[in-house]
Amino acid sequence: MKGLMQDHPLLISSIIRFARRNHQRVEIVSAMGDGRRHRTTYGRAYRRIAQLAHALTALGVAPGERIATLAWNDYRHFEIYYAVSGIGAVCHTLNLRLFPEQLAYIINHADDRMIFVDPMFVPLLEQLGDAIPGVRHVVVLCDEDELPSASLPDLRSYESLIAGHDEEYDWPLFDENTASSLCYTSGTTGNPKGVLYSHRSTVLHAYAAALPDGISLSRRDAVLPVVPMFHVNAWGIPYMAPMVGAKLVMPGQKMADGEALQALIEDEGVTVALGVPTIWLALLQYLERSGKGLGRLERTMVGGAACPPAMIKTFLERYGVYTRHGWGMTEMSPVGTVNTPRPDWAEMEPEERERLMAKQGHGLFGVEMRITGDDGEELPWDGESRGQLEVRGPFVCAGYYRLEESPSHKPDGWFMTGDVATIDADGYMQIVDRTKDVIKSGGEWVSSIDLENLAVAHPAVAEAAVIGVAHPKWSERPLLIVVKQPGAELSRDEMLAFFDGKVASWWIPDDVVFVEELPHTATGKVQKTALREQFRDYVLPTA
Ligand code: ADP
C-alpha cells in the first residue's frame, strides 16, 4: 500500500523560491576582485535568477545541456547555480586551478555548450581556443562596460545577458532524479571523473548537512564558505544557506589570503567558516602576525584533508572558536561525516577529548558506512580495526559521467572511498590514510596522517607531509618533509626527538627534509603523488 502524501519532487528551484518568500532581506555579501564588497539579498538574487533563466531559455538552452562556470565564489556564480539547474540544465563547475589541457579535456568530455567566466580567466579560455570546439557562447561575469575584448564565441557580459528579462519565472516541475550539476574529481590518478548530482541528491544533502550535529546552519548564522563553488558546490553551502536563511559571505578570489579572510569574518559578523586546513593555516599565521581576532566567529568546519589536532587547539584556546572536523568526497556531495562532540565528552580529561575531536566524526543521516578487510569481510566498529571505508546512500554517486564501468563501485553498489579508516562503537570514524598513501614498513602500517598531525604540533612547523620511501630491509620507511614557520629554527634531530614517546618507536620517520613549500593540488591539499615522485630516489640514512 502506498502512502497518501503528495508526490512533490525535491527540486533546487524550490530552495530559492522558499528563500525569496521567507528570507528575502537576508544578505549575500561578495568580496569582488577589485576590492569592493558587493551586497545583495536573497530577494534580489531571486529576481536576477529569474532573469537569467529567461536569458538561457531565449538562447535555446535545453534541459540536460551542460552549462559551465569558471568562477570564484560570488553572487553571480550563486545566481548561475540556481538558474541553470532550475530550468533543468546541468551546472558544470570548472576548477580554475587546473592546467589548460585538463580544462579542455573536461570541457570536451562534458560537452559544455556555454561557459560563464570570471574576467580574469578570459585569457585562459582564449588560450584553449580551438581545443574546445563545442563551446558556442561565452559570458563574462561583469558589467557591459567591463567586457574585455577577446576572440571567443558569442562573447557578452553577464549584465547585458540578463538585462530586460522578466523578474519572475515559472519554474518547471520535473523528476527529482534529473541531473542538476556536474563536478569532476581532481584526478590525482588518471583522467578526472565526472560526478553528476541530481536535484534529489542535492536537496537531501543540504537537509542532512545543515542539521545541528552536521554543519549546523540556521538563520542566526552568517556563513563563509572558503571552499570553492568550483569544487563540490562549496560543500553544499549555496543550497543550505538560502534553505535556512543564513547570511552568505562569499570570499571571491581571496581564498588563501589570511588578511582578507580576517576582515570578512570580523566586518560581516561571520559565525561559521568552512575550508581545508591549508586555508586556516594562512588565516592563523596572519592572526599571529597582526594580533587581530575573529569577531563573532563561533566555529570552523575543517575537512578535505586531515585537520591537525594542533589547529583545533589553537582555534579554541587562542580564539575561542570550535572546530568541527569533517570528511567527505566529491562523490558524496560531499559531506560524509562531521565531528560534533558528544555530551559525555565534557567530563573527559582534555587529552582524551582532544583525541576524540581529531577524528573525522560520525556519519550524517543518509550516509551508511562500513569498513572492510583485504578479503572484503566487514570489520567491527571497535575503533581499532582498520580497513577500506565504503559508503552508500541517496547522496553518494552511483557511477561516473560517461564512464561505462566505475572502478570504485562494488557489485552490491557500495562505493569504495579509497580511504583506510577505523570506526568506534559510537560511530566516530577516523581516517588513517588514503589507500594510495599508506606506508607499509615491514608489512605493518604506519599512518602518515598521525605523523603529520604530530609534526605540525611542533611550534616551529608550519606544514608537514610524510611519505613512504623505499628501504632495503623494511621495504618502505617514512620520510618527513617539513615547511618551517617563518623565521623559526629547527634541526632534523630536534624534529625527530619530538616524536619520542608520542608514537611507537618504529613509526618515527627515518629522516627529515626541510623545504620552502609543499606542492598542493587544485583543491589545496598536499600533493603526495608529486612528493613521492620528487623523493623517489631519496636514500634514507638507515638504508
Ligand atoms: P580529490 O581531492 O581527489 O578531488 P575530493 O576532494 O573528493 O577528491 O577528496 C576526497 C578525499 O579527501 C577523501 O577520500 C579523503 O582521502 C580526503 N579527505 C577529505 N576529508 C578528509 C579529512 N577530514 N581527513 C583526511 N582526509 C580527508
Structural overview:
With 543 residues, this protein is of the alpha/beta class. The protein folds into 3 domains: 240 residues, Rossmann fold; 180 residues, Rossmann fold, CATH 3.40.50.12780; 96 residues, GMP Synthetase, Chain A, domain 3 (2-Layer Sandwich). Helix content is 28%, strand content 24%. It has 16 helices and 25 strands. α11 links the parallel β12 and β13. α1 packs antiparallel against α2, α1 runs parallel beside α9 and α7 crosses α9. The chain is globular and about 70 Å long. 48% of the residues are buried. The mean pLDDT is 95. Adenosine-5'-diphosphate (ADP) binds next to β14, β19 and β20.
Largest beta sheet: what is the strand line-up?
2-1-11-10-12-13-14-15-16-20-19-18-17
Rg value: 23 Å
The distinct ligands, each listed once, are: adenosine-5'-diphosphate
Overall domain count: 3
Strand residue percentage: 15-25%
- The CATH class of the largest domain is Alpha Beta
Structural class by secondary-structure content: alpha/beta
Oligomer: single chain
Helix content: 25-40%
CATH architecture of the largest domain: 3-Layer(aba) Sandwich
What's the CATH topology label of the largest domain? Rossmann fold
What distance lies between the first and last C-alpha atoms, to the nearest angstrom?
A: 69 Å
Structure keywords:
Rossmann fold; 543 residues; seven-stranded mixed β-sheet; 13-stranded mixed β-sheet; single chain; 25 strands; alpha/beta; GMP Synthetase, Chain A, domain 3; binds adenosine-5'-diphosphate
